[in-house]
């Protein structure tokens, strides 16, 4: 649990700013979303990358999980 201030304002949708602030304050490595306001805006990814947070679409995340599973099985 993290306490957000609500002061972060970098996204078009203010509700999404709370999600971004939670990811940053919670030291998340990944933010997996179907929300195109988050996943399709390069400036957001650029702003979060220096803080160690990557934004992925659900499809990209599932592809990474599948590839990781293949690597563990020696198939990749």
- So what's the oligomer here? single chain
Q: Helicity range of the residues?
A: 40-55%
- Rg for CA atoms: 14 Å
Low-confidence stretches: none
How many strand elements?
2
Q: Compute the separation of the termini in Å.
A: 36 Å
Strands side by side in the biggest sheet: 1-2
| SSE sequence, one letter per element | HEHHEH
Shape: elongated
Structural class: mainly alpha
| β-strand amount | 5-15%
Mean pLDDT: 90
Count of individual helical segments: 4
Biggest sheet, in brief?
A: 2 strands, parallel
Characterise this structure:
With 76 residues, the protein is mainly α. Helix content is 50%, strand content 11%. It has 4 helices and 2 strands. It has a two-stranded parallel ribbon with strand order 1-2. The model has no long low-confidence stretch (mean pLDDT 90).
In short:
By secondary structure, the chain is mainly alpha-helical. It is built from four helices and two strands, in the order αβααβα.
Structural key phrases:
4 helices; 76 residues; 50% helix; two-stranded parallel sheet
């Amino acid at each position: 649990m993290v306490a957000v201030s609500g002061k972060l304002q970098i996204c078009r949708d203010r509700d999404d700013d709370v999600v971004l602030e939670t990811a940053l304050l919670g030291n998340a490595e990944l933010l997996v979303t179907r929300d195109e306001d988050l996943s399709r805006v390069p400036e957001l990814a650029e702003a979060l990358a220096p803080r160690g947070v990557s934004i992925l679409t659900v499809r990209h995340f599932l592809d990474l999980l599948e590839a990781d599973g293949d690597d563990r099985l020696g198939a990749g």
